[in-house]
Structures are given as C-alpha cells and as structure tokens.
C-alpha cells in the first residue's frame, strides 16, 4: 500500500518538544525557522527495507526504518512525531538541516521515546513539523507489525534477557525462553483473604501487565509474589553456551529492570525484586549445575542457597522504568527462603527470580501496583527506549 502523503493546516504553531514558533523572528538561537521563501511542496515518506510501498512496519524482520523527504529549499529545524493510535506510544526524531535520510531520521528497533511501547497491529501516524510553518506533513494508514524481539539481543553492547512480558495466563514459549515457564507461579499470603493477582490490560507493553493488590490484614508486610514455578528455570537450557546470564558478568554490570505503575492513592506500595542463586546443587562445574536444572523437576533447595532482594518504594504516579544494579541487592535473611547460601553474589548461578507486593514502609495498608516487561541486562542499562 502506498503511504498517504498530504499536508494540512495545524491549529497551533510549534513542535512536540516545545519548539514554539509562528515565524522566524520568534525563534531561539538554536533553532532555524523557515523563511517566507521556503518551498512548502514537500513529499514525505517512511521507508523500511528499501521501500516506501509498505503498509506494515516489520521490526521483527528489519531492525530499522527511516524517513525521507524532498530536499528542503533551506536549512530548517524539524521534528518527526510518530504516534501509536492505540498504545499512546510516541517516538520523536528531530534535527536541523535540509535533508531527511537514513542518517538523520534513523528509527531503530521500533523504539518509542515515551514510556509506552508500540503495539502489534496498531495504526501509527507520522507527522513532520517544521519550525516557522503552520503546515504539517503526514503519513497515515500504516500498521506497526510484530515487535522487535529483545530477548538475547545485544544492542549498544548491552545484552538483554527478557524474563516476562505478562501477555498470557498460560505460557506458550512466546514471551520467555522456550525451556522455562516464566513467572507463572503466583502465591498470596493466606492470612490476607482478599489479595488479587491477575493479568491486566493496564499495560505499557504488549497485551497485558501483571497486577497485584489487596490489604495486608496481618501486618506482616508481604501480600503476594509472582515467581518461577521451578526455581532453576533460568539455568534449564540445552547447552552451556545458551544459558541466558553469562558466567563471568560482575554484579555491578548486571541490571534488573521492570516497568512499574505508581498511584499516590496507595502510598505504602512497594515492589520487591528477588534473585535466586543456585548454591545447593553446585558442585564446581556450571555445566553440572545446568544439567541438574535441565533434568530435575524438583524445586531448588532454598535453605542451602542464596536469595538477593531489592525493595522499590512506589512513590510516583504513572508508569516508570525501574532499573537496579545487581550489586545493590541485599542478602535475604530468612534461611528458609534463600538465606542459607554462601552469601557471595555469583551471577553465573542465577537460577530464577520473583516479584513481590509489600506494604512498606508501613504495614497493614491497602496497596496496589502493575508490573510489566521484566528484563535482566548485562553490561549496561536496557536500551528499550531512545
């Protein structure tokens, strides 16, 4: 399908980043506005895999796309705003010059600039704004296809391991490593009778997120957890080379991240990340440990292993991308749930993780949150946004 290429009058002057102008005389020193002689006859196109004759973006097949336009008659400051009409995702690309091409408008991996991800099969609208013009050039009728698959991808030197996207109640090997089940084992405090754990359409990525809420009736601070059903899941792979987390990555270069939703109505909501290291069955060889994880259906012997935790007090409003270095995690104290290992962080032994809902700093409260797109990255922060 050919893209629609047209222009229309925009009701308000200005660009999405606040570069406001209704004429060159109102422009700041770093902006170049179009003069009265600027040629507004511009053709604006979106290109992927060498073609503009497409109706669906395919970042699952091609890492990048870019925009092209008729060469401007003069250098101007411009901005391209790409908006997902269902998700609310927005991607901003801007610059100053007279040429839009693959170098100046490169859109890698279908990333957005704001917190939301573009959703599969949603329509996206692309608009080109030029400082000093009240004309906007638009491309409509294009769908965003399947997302770029971040799992086990290295971008800008950062390796990404997708733990869970929370898109399905039952794992089909779609959102996680095929040999593991994802964070599909939800448990709640039985002394708190009204705790709810469920998938929700209140999401930042994909189809759904994971929601936990309720009242900490017994004042112990813990309400619910979502964790790997088998606590050796991350080590269960067909070969040593395919283990997701490298054997020798330092704790300061390993990062746990998730998108967490905050609501000031629930001020004592805290999300706890917990990482399990397999010490109980470690015999000196990582390959032996992998073989145990692959073949055994039993749970990891928690009392003889390490658990490392980090608490995130959710004291903000809306979605936020939380990123925590593994070096900042503290040892679990309970010897029955990951407090009996060697108390040494060894990233190569990471076998599973859990996400819990707490009432903290004050216990006994009604608390609520949503969690989405949990990842672990090596050698840097996640490159999900740009």
CATH class term of the largest domain: Mainly Beta
CATH level 3 topology of the largest domain: Jelly Rolls
The whole-angstrom Rg is 24 Å
- Domain count: the total is 2
Strand content: 35-45%
Q: What characteristic shape results from the CA principal axes?
A: elongated
Give the distance, in angstroms, between the N- and C-terminal Cα atoms: 28 Å
3D structure, described in words:
The chain folds into 2 domains: 6-144, no CATH class; 154-378, Jelly Rolls, CATH 2.60.120.430. A hairpin with a 4-residue loop joins strand 8 and strand 9. The strands form 4 sheets. Strands 10, 11, 13, 14, 16, 19 and 22 form a 7-stranded antiparallel beta sheet that branches. Strands 1, 3, 5, 6, 8 and 9 form a 6-stranded mixed beta sheet that branches. It has a 6-stranded antiparallel beta sheet with strand order 12-15-21-17-18-20, with no helix packed on it. It is 3% helix and 37% strand. It contains 1 helix and 22 strands. Mean pLDDT is 87; it is low at 1-27. It starts with 5 loop residues before the first strand and ends in an 8-residue tail after the last strand. By secondary structure, the protein is mainly beta. The chain has one helix at 286-295, and strands spanning 6-9, 44-47, 56-57, 64-69, 76-84, 90-97, 107-108, 123-130, 135-144, 154-155, 158-164, 185-188, 196-200, 209-215, 222-227, 254-262, 269-277, 306-313, 318-325, 330-331, 350-359, 366-378.
């Amino acid at each position: 399908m050919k893209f629609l290429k047209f222009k229309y009058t925009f009701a308000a002057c200005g660009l999405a980043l606040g570069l406001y102008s209704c004429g060159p005389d109102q422009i700041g020193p770093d902006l170049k506005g179009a003069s009265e002689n600027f040629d507004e006859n511009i053709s604006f196109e979106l290109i992927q895999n060498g073609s503009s004759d497409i109706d669906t973006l395919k970042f699952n097949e091609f890492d990048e796309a870019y925009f092209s336009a008729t060469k401007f008659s003069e250098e101007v400051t411009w901005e391209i705003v790409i908006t997902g009409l269902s998700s609310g995702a927005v991607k901003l690309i801007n610059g100053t010059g007279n040429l839009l091409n693959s170098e100046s408008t490169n859109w890698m991996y279908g990333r957005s600039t704001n917190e939301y991800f573009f959703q599969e099969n949603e329509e996206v609208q692309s608009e080109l704004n030029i400082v000093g013009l009240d004309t906007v050039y638009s491309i409509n009728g294009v769908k965003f296809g399947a997302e770029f698959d971040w799992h086990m991808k290295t971008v800008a030197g950062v390796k990404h391991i997708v733990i869970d996207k929370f898109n399905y109640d039952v794992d089909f090997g779609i959102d996680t490593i095929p040999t593991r089940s994802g964070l599909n084992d939800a448990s709640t405090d039985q002394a708190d009778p009204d705790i709810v754990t469920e998938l929700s359409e209140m999401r930042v990525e994909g189809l759904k997120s994971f929601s936990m809420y309720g009242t900490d009736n017994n004042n112990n601070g813990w309400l619910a957890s979502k964790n790997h059903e088998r606590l050796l899941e991350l080590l269960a792979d067909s070969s040593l080379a395919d283990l997701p987390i490298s054997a020798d990555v330092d704790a300061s270069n390993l990062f746990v991240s998730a998108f967490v939703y905050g609501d000031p109505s629930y001020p004592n909501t805290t999300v706890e990340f917990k990482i399990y290291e397999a010490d109980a069955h470690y015999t000196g060889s990582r390959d032996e440990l992998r073989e145990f994880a692959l073949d055994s259906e039993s749970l990891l012997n928690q009392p003889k292993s390490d658990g490392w935790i980090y608490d995130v007090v959710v004291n903000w409003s809306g979605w936020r991308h939380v990123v925590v270095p593994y070096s900042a995690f503290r040892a679990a104290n309970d010897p029955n749930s990951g407090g009996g290992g060697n108390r040494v962080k060894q990233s190569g032994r990471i076998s599973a993780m859990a996400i819990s809902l707490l009432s903290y700093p004050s216990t006994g409260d009604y608390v609520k949150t949503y969690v989405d797109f949990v990842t672990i990255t090596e050698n840097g922060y996640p490159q999900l946004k740009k």
